[in-house]
Amino acid sequence: MSVKYKRILLKLSGEALMGEKNFGIDNNRLAQYAKEIKEIHDMGVEIAIVIGGGNIFRGLQAAEGGMERTQGDYMGMLATVINGMALQSALEVTKIKTRLLTAIKMEQIAEPFIRRRAIRHLEKGRIVIFGAGTGNPYFTTDSAASLRAIEIEADVILKGTRVDGIYTADPEKDSTATKYSSITFNEVYEKGLNVMDLTAFTLCNENKLPIVVFDMNAPGNLKRVIEGENVGTLVNF
User: What pLDDT does 38 receive?
Assistant: First the structure.
């Protein structure tokens, strides 16, 4: 079976892991994601994953409440490691070998991020999960996803969200919003659309790394994106 992308970085939001809950991790959603990821792994796709931590802790919100921003950001990084461990466990239930690599050293539970090691794991067919963001405060997990995707020479970033692409306006607030099937980086800048935070988006633009924004919660969508179907919105050049 032909695939459009050989090596991908899948960016998932922490909030998506909540499923029907108001906080934490929904095991059913985790199992669904693991099943979808296994499906494309079995097609020979090399997969790296970055997950946010918003279902557990958001550094930015903590800063708004008076906590020092740096401290809040580090706490958020630890939340992404918890999510990474949960996804690793769910994937290994499906008999896929995975490696969790973190930007903050915690040898008892994960390997430290080393670029060459990460690429070697991918070449051996292991799924690589990147935890703890970039390891630096003031950077989002979107920025971590862009950085890691560039470092491992991924073909694309697949941003799995709860919305099925990029719209002219927020479709949850504006019923007249229409969806783009594809859009250029320059058009996103000109229209002021919110795809990723600006640091992450610019990093992709400067390094000619396309982005696909799609609904990860719709069963089969991930596989359809990999096969090159027109799912979600492609941001290209």
Answer: 97
